[in-house]
Amino acid sequence: MSFVNEFLILFRGMTIPAGICLIVGLVFIIIEIFQPGFGIFGVLGGILAVVGIVLRAIVGDGNVFAQVFLLLLFYVIFIVIAFLILAVTAKKGWLNRSPLIESSTAVAFGHSDGTADYSALVGAVGVARTDLRPVGKVEIDAVLYDVVTEGFFIKNGEAVRVVSVEGSKITVIRAE
User: Fold this and answer.
1) Residue 136: how many CB atoms within 10 A of its CB?
2) Any transmembrane segments, and where (predicted)?
């Protein structure tokens, strides 16, 4: 038989339980791709896919091996398409604005109770207490802070100025 005949026989002889298992299995696998978790949806989707393929093969019309191959080929094509959609949307940030992905948190953006807010230090002047190459300690208002320079070596005892703060990362330059 030709490929087209096997393709037509594949869907003409599909029973309702086999079709439901195949479709729900594919949906579960795609859910696992977009919202990874403990693998429950992926495992259930795989099991349902196998059950659907077996139910379709039991019907027995046409070449069973060709039909199993076609079903697996369809699954691979749909999974690759879903993965490509995930990769493109994640790169462009479209998926973050989608209700499929929950991206909100319970804490304020930028810092949480576990991260001290050092934003008030921007513009403050202090003294290097270790050599900054580029990481070290700086004393500002009698308090020691772990800081990083913008790539320049600063000697112990030199004056520094805070230029930016990102979370707990304090960036300094040599004060002039």
Assistant:
1) 21
2) 6-31, 38-59, 65-88
